[in-house]
Every structure is written in C-alpha cells, then in structure tokens.
C-alpha cells in the first residue's frame, strides 16, 4: 500500500451485496444468478403486453431509486425500445456447459 487515499478507488468489489457492513454476503439465486435487482432496470427479451401494445418492451429488476418492495424480478415495467435512462441497462448471459 502506497498510502495514497485513492489507491484502491478503481478496484471492483466482490460479487454479492453488503448488508450495511463490510462483509460480502453471497446472494446467488437458485438458478445461479447474482444481483438481479437493486442496481438498474434490465431490458428483457419479449413483449411487455403484446395484446395491448406490442411496442412496449419489458424491464425487470428494480433500480437503486426504487422502494425496497419494488426490488424484485416479479415486477415488470414497460417502455418503448428507444427509451434512454441512466437507470436502464441489460445483462449478458452465458450458458455454462
């Protein structure tokens, strides 16, 4: 350690979450996914409500600005595919063989 206050500023934290402390808690789902809710809303494949409006695409996951009861993948939000926001992203998935 060089003693520089910013030496570790670019480091990535371990996968999991911090429950108000310094210890990482393993939060893997039964399907093996991590951190599915609480960071940003994620675009999902498919239609939000095809019958009502096929232009809407589903977002899931809940963002950092949502109330805790909305931080679940059960909740869906529908937006048009050209919607832009700092709170919307996507997740890359690789099937493990």
From TrEMBL:
Matching Pfam families: FGE-sulfatase
InterPro entries in UniProt: CTDL_fold, SUMF_dom, SUMF_sf
Transmembrane segments: none
Domain Sulfatase-modifying factor enzyme-like: 12-93
The protein's name: Sulfatase-modifying factor enzyme-like domain-containing protein
């Amino acid at each position: 350690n060089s003693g520089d206050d910013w030496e570790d500023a670019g480091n990535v934290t371990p996968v999991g979450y911090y429950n108000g402390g310094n210890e990482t808690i393993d939060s893997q789902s039964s399907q093996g996914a991590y951190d599915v809710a609480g960071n940003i809303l994620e675009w999902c494949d498919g239609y939000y409500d095809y019958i009502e409006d096929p232009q809407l695409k589903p977002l899931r996951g809940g963002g950092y600005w949502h109330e805790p009861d909305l931080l679940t993948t059960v909740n869906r939000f529908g937006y048009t595919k050209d919607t832009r926001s700092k709170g919307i992203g996507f997740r890359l998935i690789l099937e493990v063989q």
